[in-house]
Amino acid sequence: MTEKIKVFKHNSICIDVEGRAVYVDPFEMDETPRDAAFILVTHDHYDHFSPEAIEKVANKNTVLVVPEKMKSKAAEVSAIVGKIEYVNPGMNYDVDGLTFETVAAYNILKPFHPKSASWRNLYYGCKEGS
């Protein structure tokens, strides 16, 4: 299973889901694969939502999935992805065949990841069989 997960810098990973590249929070990408079927962004901090890194992995068919409250920020990259889907925490989704659940997350040790702003921190868990 771990051979299907590629770890990049900081918090950035790519998961091979049935032959489709699913990037989570691409950041400071050295490569320019432009092979993303999906890009999942957990929240709006610069090291999670990086237009420069998104440009390196996205193509005209890429689906960008971001928290609902990131609509204005996501517009910055709308020309380099195929479409943008907006999600909220605590929900199940099926986006173009990728099934996942969003979960609110926060960090009690960091004041810039407060529980009261759970919309900013979404983590995606692909369901078995996706």
Radius of gyration: 14 Å
What order do the strands of the largest sheet run in, or round the barrel if closed? 1-2-3-4-5-6
**CATH class category of the domain at 5-87:** Alpha Beta
Overall pLDDT score:
87
Kindly estimate the percentage of residues that lie in beta strands according to DSSP: 25-35%
And the CATH topology of the domain at 5-87?
Metallo-beta-lactamase, Chain A
Give the number of DSSP strands.
Answer: 9
Specify the overall morphology.
globular
Structural class: mainly beta
SSE string: EEEEHEHEEEE
Largest sheet, described in full?
6 strands, mixed
Distance between the termini: 13 Å
CATH homology superfamily name of the domain at 5-87: Ribonuclease Z/Hydroxyacylglutathione hydrolase-like
State the helix count.
Answer: 2
Low-pLDDT segments, ≥5 res: 118-123
Q: What is the architecture of the domain at 5-87 at the second tier of CATH? A: 4-Layer Sandwich
The helix content is: under 10%
Structure, explained:
Pfam families: Lactamase_B_3. This is Beta-lactamase superfamily domain-containing protein. With 130 residues, the chain is mostly beta strands. The protein has a domain at 5-87: 4-Layer Sandwich (Metallo-beta-lactamase, Chain A). It is 8% helix and 34% strand. The chain has 2 helices and 9 strands. It has helices at residues 51-57, 71-74, and strands at 5-7, 13-17, 20-24, 36-40, 63-67, 83-87, 92-95, 98-104, 122-126. The strands form 2 sheets. The protein has a 6-stranded mixed beta sheet, with no helix packed on it. Strands 7-8-9 form a 3-stranded antiparallel beta sheet, with no helix packed on it. A hairpin with a 5-residue loop joins strand 1 and strand 2. The longest helix is centred in the middle third of the chain and has 7 residues, at 51-57. The chain is globular and about 35 Å long. The two termini are 13 Å apart. 32% of the residues are buried. Residues 118-123 have low confidence and may be disordered.
